[in-house]
Amino acid sequence: MKKIIVLLITVAAFCLSPKITKAQDGADAKPAKVDKSDPLNKANTFVAALNLTDAAKANRVKQAIATHLKAVRDWHNSHDYTLVPEGINPVTGKTFSKLERQVIINSTIPKSVHEALMAGLRKDLTEEQVDVVLDKYTIGKVAFTMNGYKSIVPNLNKDEEAFILTNLKAAREQAVDYKNVDQISVIFKIYKTKIEDYFTNTEGRNWKQMYKAYADAAKAKKAEPVKN
Questions:
Q1: Which of 34, 39, 201, 228 could tie 66 with a disulfide, CB 3.0–4.6 Å?
Q2: What's the predicted TM-score (pTM) here?
Q3: Which of the residues in the chain have pLDDT under 70?
Q4: Which positions carry the signal peptide feature in this UniProt record (predicted)?
Q5: What angle do CA 167, 173, 179 make, to 5 degrees?
């Protein structure tokens, strides 16, 4: 009788062990990684930065962003750079790079895609909140670039700062319709060139001289011996 009882206990333990092991495996399993490139996941991240308390409003904003991100991604993926013939840039005389050709073809995305995004954002957000979203799209390039100009241009006055900021914000809004950081940087370069031309043509300012002075000072500081 005792042998039968022992046998039954052993069989029961054997049958339960896979379930126990499976439960343990489930407890030890790492959470699935979030695909940060997914439009909805990116939209969630952008909206989280706004700290909205109205769930319905947050959802509308999220959907507007996700729809836009998906449209930009799909346009990029379906429009290869080879759709733009090889040739030269009529301004520089240099052959268009692969990146430049991709930016050109991506710029043909319907304007309605951009308009729908901005209308969706402005329907529920203040202009300051819209700025936050656009900064998320462009990884904070406005503030970063503005700080660079403040370091390069001595005694930056209010008019000059306003001119820089206006152009950087224009670059930011245009850049949201491009797929990745490299393409976004190309768009910002267009407006940075305008800014640097402005300083070149401003009385008493010379962009190349200011940039050289900044670069020389940075190089000299880097060469200074480290103090113990």
A1: 39
A2: 0.81
A3: 1-34, 36, 228
A4: 1-23
A5: 125
